[in-house]
């Protein structure tokens, strides 16, 4: 397995040359003292050291050893406990947490790069701190001051981790039908009873305490999703002086045996009258949990990117080294009996597809990260509102498109090694298995697509698309003659997106199946158009650079590849979208 190397040059290019994030920070009162370009570069260099040196070396063993369960306790793979301790000591668990509560308060656009490095190093391990970061944000946004002061500083310090307990055996996507109950107690707390399944980090040996955020129903709750409340349930109760008290009545019943992320403990959690406290308003728990889920969704998208980036490193080294067959005459190496894989067109197709999705994905996650920062810190209300709209539109795309393209990329990374990609020795099959879950959890990619097309696009009558279209238009206007072909392609793709959207909106009143039938292809279309916009934007910046570094010429060439080979995929999507929902509903149940 190749060692992991973080893509620092590309991250710095995206952050500073493409998005000019330091200019944003300079006018943001909360960030202007803390952040500038040099600080950001130093943080990313440190993050690279931690992820390359401390986290990545454990990934292979963690996959093989996995977690083990015995008598309600879970043991993580060798090396995880020490790595988590060092990660916590370095302050990395609280990177995004509120500085007033012990966090680093880094802008999202920076933590997105750190998250990519964590996921490329070891997705399984990244989940323990990633979910903690999400839980901190949900508590910071919705919990009482007392809860915040008791829990957040210890979680931000990595002394305790967080979980998100939503799923039940009969209730996955449809959380409205959960059965976990919360009975009010005389002391103002609640007694929670029920079973949650698939709980990431529900039990482990990395920290002394685990803080569960749990969705449950109050006795008089209205039916459906309007009757769900959010509770905080610690594994150990916390005494007034902050020390750990009694063990709470929550325990892991088992761990799942699964396709990938073997180092992550996926637990069945039994709540038997466990003591918990309400977070936020009664019956408003789903909205509060969405704060965490929205944060996690970009993070899960980044898992796709990280897995792809890790796979690319090995695939590229292998393609440069392995000799098989002869290339075209001009590329033949006559000093050897065969040429490297890199001369072959099909290998180049796969490597460049990976590269275009990875660098496009890195730009996309940074674009969303920058908008998240603007939505929170921009000095003017209208800027914050515009950014908020882009975040609402792009979050489901980030989760689904980055994991779909991430999986495709890891499969190419496996294919490039032929049979050696299928066997374990080179490690390529691990990234395929580890990446696969990212399309499923945190709301399946199908559900992300429904959110995009149903709630966001149709729900706003297309209004939410407008800030993205305005950004695209700005870049199209900057493209000179050298990019006229690609600019024309992007304009046509954008027009197709607008026309498809209008077509769907017209059908909504008369076809109740239209959204559910077209959502996935629609999300893919938005993804390809958004990446095309970012590739054109990156190409213009790279071409204008004075640098003679081949990084910039390679960037331009990869942009040409994206427009030549990947953007044309939208023609098939547009055709399928224009065909409507009819062909999906011709079959009666017996016809399947
Ligand atoms: C390894 C792992 C870790 C996980 N970690 C956590 C965790 O930490 N906390 C937690 O609470 N949960 C966790 N989950 C649960 C995960 O989020 C759910 O598996 C996921 O939300 C889907 O729910 P489900 O599996 O019950 O599938 P279902 O909800 O039964 O869905 C089955 C299929 O039907 C589709 N579908 C469902 N409803 C609709 C609809 N209305 N329209 C169209 N299609 C639909 C889905 O997209 C899917 O393809 C984890 C799961 C796994 C496997």
UniProtKB/TrEMBL annotation:
Residue intervals of the Acyl-CoA dehydrogenase/oxidase C-terminal domain: 283-451
Protein name: Acyl-CoA dehydrogenase
Record's keyword terms, sorted: FAD, Flavoprotein, Oxidoreductase
Residues in Acyl-CoA dehydrogenase/oxidase N-terminal domain copies: 39-159
Cofactor list: FAD
Family: Belongs to the acyl-CoA dehydrogenase family.
Key word Oxidoreductase present: yes
PANTHER family: ACYL-COA DEHYDROGENASE, BROAD-SPECIFICITY LINEAR ACYL-COA DEHYDROGENASE FADE5
Oxidoreductase among keywords: yes
Taxonomic path: Bacteria, Pseudomonadati, Pseudomonadota, Gammaproteobacteria, Alteromonadales
Domain Acyl-CoA oxidase/dehydrogenase middle: 164-272
InterPro entries the record matches: Acyl-CoA_dh-like_C_dom, Acyl-CoA_Oxase/DH_mid-dom, Acyl-CoA_Oxase/DH_mid-dom_sf, AcylCo_DH-like_C, AcylCo_DH/oxidase_C, AcylCoA_DH/ox_N, AcylCoA_DH/ox_N_sf, AcylCoA_DH/oxidase_NM_dom_sf
Organism: Aliidiomarina sedimenti
Domain Acetyl-CoA dehydrogenase-like C-terminal: 468-584
Gene3D superfamilies for this protein: Acyl-CoA dehydrogenase/oxidase, N-terminal domain, Butyryl-CoA Dehydrogenase, subunit A, domain 2, Butyryl-CoA Dehydrogenase, subunit A, domain 3
Domain of life: Bacteria
């Amino acid at each position: 397995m190749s060692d992991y190397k973080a893509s620092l040059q590309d991250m710095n290019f995206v952050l500073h040359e493409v998005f000019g994030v330091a200019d944003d920070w300079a006018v943001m009162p909360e960030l202007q003292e803390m952040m500038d370009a040099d600080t950001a570069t130093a943080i990313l260099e440190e993050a690279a050291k931690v992820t390359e040196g401390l986290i990545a070396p454990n990934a292979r063993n963690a996959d093989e050893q996995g977690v083990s369960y015995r008598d309600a306790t879970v043991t993580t793979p060798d090396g995880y406990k020490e790595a988590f301790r060092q990660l916590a000591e370095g302050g990395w668990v609280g990177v995004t947490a509120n500085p007033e509560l012990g966090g680093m308060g880094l802008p999202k656009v920076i933590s997105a790069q750190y998250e990519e490095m964590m996921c490329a190093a070891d997705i399984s391990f990244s989940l323990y701190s990633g979910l903690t970061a999400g839980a901190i944000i949900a508590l910071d946004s919705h919990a009482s001051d007392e809860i915040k002061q008791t829990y957040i500083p210890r979680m931000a310090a990595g002394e305790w981790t967080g979980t998100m307990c939503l799923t039940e055996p009969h209730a996955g996507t449809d959380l409205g039908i959960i059965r976990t109950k919360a009975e009010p107690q005389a002391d103002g707390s609640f007694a929670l009873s029920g079973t949650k399944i698939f709980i990431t980090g529900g039990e482990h040996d990395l920290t002394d305490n685990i803080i569960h955020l749990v969705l449950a129903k109050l006795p008089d709750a209205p039916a459906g999703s309007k009757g769900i409340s959010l509770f905080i349930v610690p594994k150990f109760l916390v005494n007034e002086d902050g020390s750990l008290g009694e063990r709470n009545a929550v325990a892991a019943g088992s761990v799942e045996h699964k396709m990938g992320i073997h180092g992550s403990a996926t637990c069945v959690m039994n709540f038997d009258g466990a003591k918990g406290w309400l977070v936020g308003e009664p019956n408003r728990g789903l909205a509060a949990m969405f704060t965490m889920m929205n944060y996690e969704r970009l993070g899960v998208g980044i898992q796709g990117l990280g897995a792809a980036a890790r796979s690319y490193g090995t695939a590229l080294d292998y393609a440069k080294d392995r000799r098989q067959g002869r290339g075209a005459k001009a590329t033949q190496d006559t000093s050897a009996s065969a040429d490297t894989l890199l001369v072959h067109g099909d290998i180049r197709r796969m490597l460049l597809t990976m590269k275009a999705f990875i660098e496009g994905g890195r730009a996309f996650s940074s674009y969303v990260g920058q908008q998240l920062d603007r939505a929170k810190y921009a000095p003017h209300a209208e800027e914050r509102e515009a950014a908020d709209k882009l975040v609402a539109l792009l979050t489901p795309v980030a989760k689904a498109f980055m994991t779909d393209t991430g999986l495709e990329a890891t499969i190419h990374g496996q294919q490039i090694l032929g049979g050696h990609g299928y066997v374990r020795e080179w490690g390529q099959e691990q990234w395929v298995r580890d990446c696969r879950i990212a399309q499923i959890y945190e709301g399946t990619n199908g559900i992300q697509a429904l959110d995009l097309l149903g709630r966001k696009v149709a729900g706003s009558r297309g209004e939410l698309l407008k800030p993205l279209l305005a950004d695209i238009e700005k870049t199209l206007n900057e493209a000179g003659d050298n990019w006229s072909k690609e600019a024309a392609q992007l304009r046509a793709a954008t027009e197709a997106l607008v026309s498809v959207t209008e077509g769907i909106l017209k059908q909504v009143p008369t076809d109740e199946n239209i959204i559910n039938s077209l959502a996935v292809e629609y999300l893919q279309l938005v993804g390809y158009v958004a990446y095309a916009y970012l590739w054109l934007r990156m190409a213009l910046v790279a071409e204008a650079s004075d640098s003679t570094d081949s990084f910039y010429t390679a960037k331009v060439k990869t942009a040409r590849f994206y427009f030549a080979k990947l953007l044309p995929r939208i023609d098939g999507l547009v055709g399928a979208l224009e065909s409507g929902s009819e062909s999906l509903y011709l079959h009666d149940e017996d016809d399947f």
